[in-house]
Amino acid sequence: MSVLVEGGKASAGPPLGPALGPLGVNVGQVVAKINEETRQFAGMRVPVVVRVDPATRAFTLVVGRPPVAALLLKEAGKEKGSGKPKGEVIGDVSLEAVRRIAEAKGEDLFGRTIEERMNQVIGTCVSLGLSVGGEDPRTLLRTRVKARENP
């Protein structure tokens, strides 16, 4: 069963309780474990997969990572992105924060190197209306791509 829960705030109510109750699993233990493993993502929705062995009623959790956009918005201290991302800048994130997010997402991103993954995160900044280190992310991306092509 896959669910999206707010980090550290899962409850025995829907969607977890009704889905897990008939399987004979202790819903309280599942909720406690989910909250323990998602606490670091407080305020963000986190994908969680709960696998239950019906024979033993044992469960395992697979906790995903929040989307890049959610991590960027948390870093910028904003709740949502710009309604006009190409014309309205709603906040700023540092290049160090972009690197941390790219490293945290790791294999979830398509790039092979950390630089390529950082470019993907910077591209998300464009969509959200965030500047990177006070610079327009589109300009920064062009500069980074040119630097990589002409070493």
Describe this structure as you would to a colleague.
The chain has two domains: 62 residues, Ribosomal protein L11/L12, N-terminal domain (Ribosomal protein L11, N-terminal domain, 2-Layer Sandwich), CATH 3.30.1550.10; 82 residues, Arc Repressor Mutant, subunit A, CATH 1.10.10. It has six helices and five strands. Strands 1-2-3 form a three-stranded antiparallel β-sheet, with helices on one face. It has a two-stranded parallel sheet with strand order 4-5. Helix 3 crosses helix 5 and helix 4 crosses helix 5. The radius of gyration is 19 Å and the shape is elongated. The termini are far apart.
Task: List descriptors.
two-stranded parallel sheet, 5 strands, 3-stranded antiparallel sheet, Ribosomal protein L11, N-terminal domain, Arc Repressor Mutant, subunit A, 2 domains, 151 residues, alpha+beta
Identify low-pLDDT runs: none
CATH architecture of the largest domain: Orthogonal Bundle
CATH level-four homologous superfamily name of the largest domain: Ribosomal protein L11/L12, C-terminal domain
> What is the makeup of the main sheet?
3 strands, antiparallel
Question: Helix and strand succession?
Answer: EHHEEHEHHEH
Domains (count): 2
Strand order of the largest sheet: 1-2-3
The 3D shape can be described as elongated
Give the CATH level 1 class of the largest domain. Mainly Alpha
- The computed structural class is alpha+beta
Distance between the termini: 48 Å
Per the CATH scheme, the topology name of the largest domain is Arc Repressor Mutant, subunit A
| Radius of gyration using CA atoms only | 19 Å
Strand content: 15-25%
The chain-level mean pLDDT equals 90
The portion of residues assigned to helices is 40-55%
Give the helix tally. 6
Count of individual beta strands: 5
